[in-house]
Amino acid sequence: MDLDWDDDEEPRGDGRECPICYESLSEKDWTWVVYSRYCKECAKPYLITKVQDAIKNELYYPVREGRDDIHLPSLQQLIDDDALLRMYFHRGRDYAVPVPERKYCKHKILVGDRPEDPYTYENRKTWIPPIALEVETETCGFQLRAPTEDLLDCSSCSGLTCANCIKPIYGANVDHYCPMLEEADEEVDGFAGQVRGKEYQICPNEQCQMPVSLWAACNHMVCAKPSCRTEFCFVCGERADESDGHWGTHEDQCPVYGQPD
């Protein structure tokens, strides 16, 4: 939270001493941290430790003073570590992903070979191919960001991961066989002889083409492939969502439920 108080305003309690070093604030430079005043000599390492803890452990994110969130942008000049704050806000994006939807890199890296700032391209390390001999490795384990088409990119080790089966991809010279895509091909064959738009439909995303069936629900479909999630109509197969008036009772609309009369 951002508090716009005058420096002369009294904080919670008497605020005459720094709550860390207990020295009088009357002769020292001090700053507000939410409702409390700290001398700047103590406030800087105090805040940096809180930020570091939040980067390492989601339980400490966002940084707080008591029950109140600390507004870090207003204290950026005091902390004076842009790289640390960048990591903090990047980590917040990772924490915002619901736990069931989080994906983690399975590439191997050299033991202990982790970048201090995994969100900066210049600091990236290099994943180790599985055929490497006599090299002690460990799993990267870094959280992967939202998919770009069918690939997930690890900002820590530069490894690519299949967004469908979440298995590592070992470079352009090594073929990757995705079992989920193979299953999709089999499902297409399984719809042979059926009527598209009545008994099955295909995702309109040209990069996906995942077939789907519908038993008892509305005609608003969302592709089940994690790297796609395209919204479309089961009846006509066109891209559509609830906001564009695609479904209704008029002649130029598809029905919400069932098939056209």
3D architecture notes:
Pfam families: IBR (PF01485). Residues 14-258 form the RING-type domain. The strands form 6 sheets. Strands 7-8-9 form a 3-stranded antiparallel β-sheet, with no helix packed on it. Strands 1-2 form a two-stranded antiparallel sheet. A two-stranded antiparallel ribbon has the order 3-4. It has 4 helices and 13 strands. The chain has 261 residues and is an alpha+beta fold. The longest helix is centred in the N-terminal third of the chain and has 17 residues, at 40-56. It folds into 3 domains: 30-96, no CATH class; 99-162, no CATH class; 193-260, no CATH class. Helix content is 18%, strand content 14%.
Task: Provide a compact summary of the structure.
Helix content is 18%, strand content 14%. It contains four helices and 13 strands.
Widest sheet: strand order? Answer: 7-8-9
Biggest sheet descriptor: 3 strands, antiparallel
Helical content stands at: 10-25%
Number of strands: 13
Radius of gyration: 27 Å
Helix run count: 4
Mean pLDDT: 82
**SSE order:** EEHEEHHEEEEEHEEEE
Structural class: alpha+beta
Principal-axis shape equals flat
Number of domains: 3
Strand content: 5-15%
Query: End-to-end span in angstroms?
Result: 57 Å
Question: Which parts are unreliable, with pLDDT below 50 for 5 consecutive residues or more?
Answer: 1-13
Pfam families: IBR (PF01485)
GO molecular function: ubiquitin protein ligase activity; zinc ion binding
Keywords: Metal-binding, Repeat, Transferase, Ubl conjugation pathway, Zinc, Zinc-finger
Protein name: RBR-type E3 ubiquitin transferase
